[in-house]
Amino acid sequence: MGGPPDGSPSGAALRVRGLVKRYGARTAVDGLDLDVAAGSVTALLGPNGAGKTSTVECCLGLRRPDGGSVEVLGADVLRAAADPDHRAAVGAMLQDGGLPTSARPLRLLRHLARLHAHPRDVDVLAERLGLPAFARTSVRRLSGGQRQRLALAAALVGRPRLLFLDEPTAGLDPAARLVVWDLVREAVAEGAGVLLTTHDLDEAERLAQHVVIVDGGRALATGAPGVLTARSTASLRFTAGPGLDLGPLRRALPEDVVVSEAAPGSYVVSGDVDPQVVAGVTSWCAQRGVMPDALSVGRPSLEEVFLDLTGRSLR
Predict the structure, then answer these.
(1) pLDDT bracket for residue 207 (50, 70, 90)
(2) I want to staple 30 with a disulfide (CB 3.0 to 4.6 A). Which of 77, 189, 217, 254 is the partner?
(3) With 70 as the cut, is the pLDDT of residue 3 above it?
(4) pLDDT band of 156, cuts 50, 70, 90
(5) Domain-terminating residue out of 224, 251, 268
(6) Among 64-78, 82-96, 176-190, 213-227, which stretch is predicted with the lowest mean pLDDT?
(7) Alpha carbon 16 to chain centroid distance?
(8) DSSP symbol at 140
(9) What is d(CA 196, CA 213) in angstroms, rounded to the nearest whole number?
């Protein structure tokens, strides 16, 4: 195959505008805008059923959008999907894997490498992901974590210009997770644009330069992780015995300050947290003989911003 095609003049590896996808009467994606710049990671975050999978499938040409536009490396997605050079420039790691179940990992990886003009060194990539340990095992007999590592290798081996990663570290142990993160960063350093979907908000915060939080098929917030967390008010956090009566504390603090027990024994005071609020909390604890452990004041994490926007109840 020839070399990968050039990206769009704007430097966007992926450009989505007003994307709509419906399934009968249900609208899964409702006017979504999304960009993935070359040499960067965009994290697409949302609860189950938020429209992430439908968005990715439309961006890969696996489903036809019902509205809007999708440009992959500067070309309309449906035309790009029919062009071998464009297909060679796009890598994808999806949850269902899409790997031939009778294949053996290293043979599969070498076969995929031969389909690309400038593939990665198969042996080096396989060694980093620990594939030789199960090289003689067919895909159908691999564990979930082994399939994850093989699927990532298959997505990376052709040095794609645009990479789709759907829950790339799900089911992996901490050591394997770090290897995956390093490989993603290396792909980005080589100029690849990456669209990452993950439920691991720490992963998104570590890898992504841009975040899009979606729910109901719509974008609720977009921006760099630091920008999204900076938009939220500071909070005070501490741990103590579960089930404390927070009524007196709420009455002792200004009306615009919210006090909650986020999880049993984990307390959050959010709003305009100034020195007087901190003093009020510590005084309330002292009056009740409560020792506030791990007391800290700071901006919320990306996970807390995500939960505030999408809700804390299970779907």
Answers:
(1) very high
(2) 217
(3) no
(4) very high
(5) 224
(6) 82-96
(7) 17
(8) G
(9) 12
Instruction: Supply 252's token pair.
Output: 């002792």
Q: Give the chain's end-to-end CA distance (angstroms, integer).
A: 45
Q: Are 163 and 141 in contact (CB under 8 A)?
A: no
> pLDDT at residue 240 above 60?
yes
CATH number of the domain encompassing residue 259:
3.30.70
> Which CATH number do you get for residue 193?
3.40.50.300
Number of domains making up the chain: 2
Task: State whether 142 and 271 are in the same domain.
Answer: no
Question: Residue 113 pLDDT > 90, yes or no?
Answer: yes
Half-sphere exposure of 216 (CA within 13 A, CB side): 5
- The distance between the two most distant Cα atoms of the chain, rounded to a whole number of Å, is 74
Q: Do 290 and 172 share a structural domain?
A: no
Note the Cα 88 to chain centre separation in Å.
23
Which of these three, 224, 253, 270, is where a domain ends? 224
Both tokens of 236, joined, read 């005070």
Confidence bin at 1 (pLDDT 50/70/90):
very low
Cβ burial, residue 263 (10 Å; 0-12/13-18/19+): exposed
Which range of residues forms the domain containing residue 191?
A: 12-224
- Let me know: does 74 contact 6? Beta carbons within 8 Å: yes
Same domain, yes or no: 19 and 155: yes
